[in-house]
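FORM 7B: Structural annotation worksheet

SECTION A. Query
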Amino acid sequence: MKHLELHIIQSVPVACLNRDDLNSPKTAVFGGVQRARVSSQSWKRAIREMAKELAPENFKGERTRLMYEPLVKAMVSAGVTDADADEGAKKIVDELVKLDTKSKDKVKSTTLYFMSPLELETLAKAYAETKDAKKTLKAVDAKSLKDAADISIFGRMVATDHSLTVEAASMFSHALSIHKVDNEIDFFSAVDDRQPKKDPGAAITSTLEFNSATYYRFAALNLDMLADDEHLGCLSREERQSVVGAFVEATIKALPGARKNTMNGNTLPLYVLGVVRENGHPIQLVNAFEAPVRSSQGYAIKSVELMKAEYAKLKETWGIEAVFEQSIPDVNMKTFVSGMVAHVI
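SECTION B. Predicted structure
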C-alpha cells in the first residue's frame, strides 16, 4: 500500500480544543498518566473546513440532515415538476437515511448524509428519467462524487445501502499530549454595565475547564486507494495532486475552533515529518512519548529529539523503507507539499 504519513508536534496554550459531555477537555491515559486528548473527529472537521478554503473546487462535500431542499432544487432544474420534486426528494431521502417524522419545522433525515453537489445533480437527473427512488440511487458512483474529494478522503457510511458507502482513504490518530496533563479550572465573572456602582457584586459567576499541552498528531493517506475506481480514479493525476496538496496543508495548519474567541489557541506546528512509503501500513511514532516527557525547559526541543530517535529505531529494527522523507522547518511549507504530492499516483 503506497501511502503518505504526517507526524506533527504542536504546542497549544490555554485552550479547550475538544470537550466531553461534561464540558471538560478530553483526556486519555497513556504510559500510565493522564494526557490531554483531541479526538480525530474534532481535528478532521477542522481539516475539512480548511481544505474547502484551499481547494474549493475539489472539496464540496457537506454532511447534513437537510439534503431535502437542495435535492428538490436540483430536481426542478432537471425538469421535474414542483409536486413531483417534493415527493421524489422525500422518497430518496427516506431510502438513503430515513425521514425524521418527528421534525415539524423542516424536512430532515434522521441521520447525517455526506453529499456532494454533483451527486444531487446525478440523483435529480436519474429521478427525472425513472421516477423511481430505488433505481435512482443506482446512478450514484465515484464519478458523481468527484467534486467532493472530502468524501473519498474521509469516507462515508450509508447503513441502508452499502453500495453508497465509501471507505476512507485517510487514517487519523487521536492527538495526545507528550506529557502528563491535569485539567485546570478558570473562575470568571461578568459585570452588569447598567448596575449602579454603589451596588457591589457580579451579574454572573461561573467556571470552565482548560489545559495546555504539546501534542503528537498523526495522519496518513492511502495513495493507492485514493487513485482507484471507487475513489478519485476518475480525476487526472494533476487533479489528485491538487487534492492531496490541500489535504496535506490543511492537516498541518488546521486547528479545532472550540472557544476560539475566548481562549484562542491558534498555533502552527513546531515540527512536521512527512514520509511516503511504497509498501506496508502507516506507523505512528507515538511510542516515542510512552514515557511522559518531563522537562523544566519546555517540551519542544525534547519532543522533536525523541520523535526522530523513535523513527530511526523503527527503520533500523524493522527495516522500514521510505521513498520520501522531509521535515518542516528544514524546508518551508511550499517545498514540503510539493515534495509529497510528487509521489501521488
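SECTION C. Observations
Residues 300-318 form the longest helix (19 residues). The two ends are 12 Å apart (CA to CA).

SECTION D. Sign-off
Analyst initials: ____
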